[in-house]
């Protein structure tokens, strides 16, 4: 694949920069690393890494940029995001190429990810004129009680490999209109797309006097680079996306210094298929949610909870549909299922399948490595469906691969208990034509997830809603709705425009 080098900063001593403080690119003092493409296991090029001191320098430069940016009127800040969105639109296909190379997504899914960035830009531009506060009725005469939202500071973004552009965009585009600066620690799997995204911001910022370049900084590297960002006192908000163990560590460090963390962690997403479900629709919804992105979405379908009256037919239809999937090099026309990210992901899928079999699971189809007709060095698998006798230990964990368990239920209460009976709480769905079941599922005693869908699958959210989940998924919400409030600080103001000084609650204190 031709690398769109026009989007990337130049090589430094044969490697991509590990540190970008605005437009100042350096290798960084950390240990350089050499990521591989999931497609064929070949190196995507050496990349420098930011050492803890570099992270501190980036935070300090971003803070200086923030001090200037916070006084720029929000609608003008919106103009920067408008221009960033234009850069993303113009370079959509090339940006998508980098996502395909580094994350192994099909071009359509990779372009969809860039589209998410564009969509969130549009959303953020509108928002830049709607960062509304409140006027509140004061209990005191001739007093005004107001609530305002002010820029927060430097936002640290730690992102996962599987959405290497969109996750940053959800955070960064909203944070920019909110008046913040960003220091981004991308996944060590995906340094190229992060540098390209940063370049787009720089090019947009260069067209506006009001926008300092250091509003955007990138610190490439592994867990230690992320840990240095989480620990930095100059970062009031750390938004971290990735596995639950990573989130636990970040939350402990950020909580220890009483900073705020916004966590978007692993899911264990289920779909209930009821007796009244439209099975044609359900099959399509399941296949996309379970095998799209080779099961490597946080919202990928991990569990099907099917009524006993439809389970056999559903499994039969799914097995047939799985048999038609084209698996292979994602750059090839017609391929729907690309590679796993690396060998470790393949090994984890295999050990999970063995554990499932030990716990009484029956592999209905899939789970094998595909080696014929695919690039050597990549880890390609046939998506697996495994019927489980119960929601046993193995089902409670997220396995980041196309592996979906099938469980059955008799009563709706039983289905809900299974749906909610896992430690994670990201996405969920029900397929039903019964309005009462749909109402119960989406109501207060229904799904305990951040996303509860009816007659669509668990994955593929739009940016307009708040995205995130409960329980061990971390409780964070990003992207649309009122998620912007997390990137600002709230200020409550009381103005006395009278001649007296009445105290609240009628307290007397005359001197
Ligand atoms: P990961 O946890 O291995 O890494 C995520 C990021 O955290 C990387 O940038 C990594 O370098 C960094 N990191 C690791 N240890 C750290 C530490 N101690 N301190 C600071 N940073 C650290 O995750 P991954 O394999 O890249 O991504 C897959 C996981 O991400 C899955 O569990 C998936 O469900 C989750 N995910 C969740 C969402 C969501 O919105 N809920 C979105 C995408 C991915």
Automatic annotation (TrEMBL):
Entry GO MF terms: aldehyde dehydrogenase (NAD+) activity
Residue ranges of domain Aldehyde dehydrogenase in the record: 31-491
Enzyme class: oxidoreductase
SUPFAM superfamilies xrefs: ALDH-like
Sorted UniProt keywords: NAD, Oxidoreductase
Name of the protein this chain belongs to: aldehyde dehydrogenase (NAD(+))
Complex formation: Homotetramer.
EC number(s) given by UniProt: 1.2.1.3
Family: Belongs to the aldehyde dehydrogenase family.
Superkingdom field: Bacteria
Active site: 264
Pfam hit, one: Aldedh
